[in-house]
Amino acid sequence: MSSTNPKTYESTPSRTVAFLGLGVMGFPMAGHLALAGHAVTVYNRSAAKAQAWTAEFKGRSAPTPREAAAGCDFVFCCVGNDEDLRSVVLGPDGAFAGMKPGAVFVDHTTASADVARELSAQARERGLQFIDAPVSGGQAGAQNGLLTVMCGGDKPSFDAARPVAMAFS
């Protein structure tokens, strides 16, 4: 049984993206990105989840967030909480360490405003863009590619990420 339901995708150029966190929301969100034609690399703390994703969708997995994010235009993240978010973003194996200058990090985690401000400041120091983008719609919204995404960040970052994120929103 597929983790996504059929959807018509807006025509947008293929981008290189990473998706960190393959839970009940992230797994189908990353799937919609792949189905929309983007080159997707996934990371999950449980390698078995990443293997299950690559068995269902066209894409690859990476052993660390840093390796997943390397060379990507966009890094999407949907993990459990503030500490989970910090663990996949910061440090020598975190996504920020692997992102190229100018890349956009889009955080879909339902996390605190404090961690969003912290990560936004760190992204800016590294020459990265950051969007705080919690989602609403639950597992069904993720499977149908119809999530509501509430974004905070600067307009150029939002304008860059919007066409890609429309795959699942």
Draw up the topology in text.
Layout: E1 16-20, H1 26-35, E2 39-43, H2 47-56, E3 60-61, H3 65-69, E4 74-77, H4 82-89, H5 95-98, E5 104-107, H6 113-125, E6 129-132, E7 135-136, H7 138-144, E8 148-149, H8 155-165
Parallel strand pairs: 1-2, 1-4, 2-3, 4-5, 5-6
Antiparallel strand pairs: 7-8
Helix pairs in contact: 1-7
Describe the protein in words:
This protein has 169 residues and is α/β, with parallel strands linked by helices. It is 40% helix and 17% strand. It has a six-stranded parallel β-sheet, with helices on both faces. A two-stranded antiparallel ribbon has the order 7-8. Helix 1 runs parallel beside helix 7.
Write out key terms for the chains shown.
17% strand, 6-stranded parallel sheet, single chain, 8 helices, two-stranded antiparallel sheet, alpha/beta, 169 residues, 8 strands
- The chain-level structural class is alpha/beta
Determine the strand fraction and express it as a percent band: 15-25%
Strands of the biggest beta sheet: in what spatial order?
A: 3-2-1-4-5-6
What's the total number of strands? Answer: 8
Average of pLDDT: 97
Instruction: Please summarize the sheet with the most strands.
Output: 6 strands, parallel
What letter string, H or E per element, gives the SSE order?
EHEHEHEHHEHEEHEH
Please state the CA-atom Rg, rounded to the nearest Å: 14 Å
Tally of separate helices: 8
Report how far apart the termini are: 22 Å
Shape: globular
Regions with pLDDT < 50 over 5+ consecutive residues? none
Q: What is the helix content?
A: 40-55%
